[in-house]
Write a structure and sequence with these properties.
This protein is mainly α. Helix content is 88%, strand content 0%. Helix 1 (2-22) packs across helix 2 (27-51). It is elongated and about 40 Å long.
Length: 52
């Protein structure tokens, strides 16, 4: 589980840096926004699997 957490963090961080190059937004804010989206998606998946 720790390895998965590291991989998700790296993907979010690198994604934020890459997207930052395309649009003029501070990288740190974009990385946080991407991580929030990843958290919401993970919570949605967790609640969907618990409900079934």
């Amino acid at each position: 589980m720790m390895g998965l957490s590291v991989i998700i963090s790296l993907v979010c961080s690198l994604g934020g840096l890459i997207i930052r190059a395309a649009i003029d937004v501070p990288a740190s804010a974009l990385i946080v926004m991407i991580m929030v989206v990843a958290y919401v998606v993970a919570r949605g998946i967790a609640s969907a699997t618990r409900a079934s």
